[in-house]
Amino acid sequence: MQQPVRKRKLIVNGEPQDYNEHLFWNMLATVFGLPATVYPLAKTMDELPCGIQIISGHFHDDVTINFAEFCESISGGFTVPEGY
């Protein structure tokens, strides 16, 4: 059973981190109003998606989307992990 978000921990470099700590990276794009696209590029050893955030300049949404499509073309696409 999944825990509430506020109680979740991620292991980063062997240390537990609050789940919400990763939200800082989302803010880099949204605070400045930049277009961003997230793409699940690979899987971790636990078979969970590991992604990248693609950020571009103002009004260049097409750049982030095109790059995500390029990533998909070379990585084989995304597969939903079991249980999700």
Description:
The protein is of the alpha+beta class and 84 residues long. The chain has two domains: 1-33, no CATH class; 34-83, no CATH class. 27% of the residues lie in helices and 27% in strands. The chain is built from two helices and four strands; from the N terminus they run E-E-H-E-E-H. The chain has helices at 23-30, 61-75; strands at residues 9-12, 15-18, 36-43, 49-55. It has a two-stranded antiparallel sheet with strand order 1-2. The longest helix has 15 residues, at 61-75. It starts with 8 loop residues before the first strand and ends in a 9-residue tail after the last helix.
Please give the structural blueprint.
Blueprint: E1 9-12, E2 15-18, H1 23-30, E3 36-43, E4 49-55, H2 61-75
Antiparallel strand pairs: 1-2, 3-4
Short recap of the structure:
The protein has 84 residues and is of the alpha+beta class. The chain has helices at residues 23-30, 61-75; strands at residues 9-12, 15-18, 36-43, 49-55.
Shape: globular
Number of helices: 2
Low-confidence stretches: none
Q: Biggest β-sheet, characterized?
A: 2 strands, antiparallel
Strand order of the largest sheet: 1-2
Please state the oligomeric state of the protein chains shown. Answer: single chain
Q: What is the element string, with H for helices and E for strands?
A: EEHEEH
Secondary-structure class: alpha+beta
**What's the mean pLDDT score?**
86
Q: How many E-type strands?
A: 4
How many structural domains does the protein architecture include? 2
The N- to C-terminal Cα distance equals 12 Å
Strand content: 25-35%
InterPro entries: AS_sf (IPR036928)
Protein name: Amidase
Organism: Escherichia coli
